[in-house]
User: Fold this.
Amino acid sequence: MLSTARPTDVTDVCVIGAGLAGLSAAHHLTSAGVRVTVIEAADRVGGRMATDEVDGFRLDRGPQLLNSSYPELRRTPGLQGLPLRPFAPGAVVRSSGTRTGTRALDRARLRSGLGKLAATPPERLLARPETTAAAALSAAFAPRAVDGFLRPLLTALLCDAELGTSSRCADLVLRGFAKGRTCLPAGGAAVVPHRLAAALPPGAVRLGVRAMTAATNGVLTEDGGFLAARGVIVATGASAAGALLPGLRVPGFHGVTVVHHAAPHAPLREPSLVLDADRRGPVSHSIPASVVDPSRAPVGRALVTSVILGPPAPDSLVRAHLADLYGVPTAGWELLAVHHDPEAVPAMPAPHDLRRPVRILQGLYVCGDHRDTSTVQGALLSGRRAAFRALRDLGIRPGYGAVPVAA
Assistant:
């Protein structure tokens, strides 16, 4: 449950940041019987995983796509039973002037290259020689498969236009795509952190409290208060974590723009991921969001959500590109919102340590998608790693049923 009151003076562990990583850490600590206080500078939980409501539409600010195979969606207390809305298998790809449904092609590839990837344990994937995602695709698949499907797919899933991401990270993402279904959380991205926060003990999350310094024995807040703790977990975004923890390496980022349009009718009947293999316009990928999740648009209207990998583009260019991608007129579509985040996705170039240390000192820890993979799975897992490392230092066993993880 949430509170806007000033934080208490003493807690067992203070978590700075109420995004997915911080809330995940708080749940695993609470499950072990540890008293936790989560402080958040903003007036809401969720960090980059936010949803705005405009004229009956639910508009995600970020580009996050979930996958039903993410293990942390099942392991994180508070997320069991999270309602997910799956995409149709495969994707629709605009290539060489035509729009091709790739579902049958995708199934064939799952039986061959992607099928082998799906069956490979993650430990073996992480032991492979590391290169870039682009180079690994070219070495493992035929050019037609790469250019016509895999490159635009990975570009969308990684939010990396040049595919300079570590091949190991790309392998894990492709493995998830092959094993599970790409999804949206029902009701908007903000449902995920809200569900986590609501399942914590009353008063555990304190909003509007900004941390100024973090130490092994507590946190100094902007209002001059000091929250004493036996351990502190910094669970902010990468740049904010770097400010609180001098010397912490801050990664580069992929800037992303999310564009929402209202349409009188859905441009597709099926809940498909729409990819651009030709790169003839500003849009990387698009989804008929209200077809995937009907709760995102009022009755009688449709929501189309599109992603630009970079800064915003003029709406006339965006709508022209969407008309090409969907094969329908878009002149009558209404622009609802444009949200640009220059630090939307932490970059994962090769070489990339997928398990960057979460322990700074005994009593001081850091977590977030910048410590693992730049995905919802990575954020949740890094929170669990930080919580388990803190519990080990406190001499406390994780809660019953907890899955071991290397910290």
Remarks:
- Residues 1-8, 102-107 have pLDDT under 50 and may be disordered.
- The longest strand covers residues 334-346.
- DSSP finds 13 helices and 22 strands in the chain.
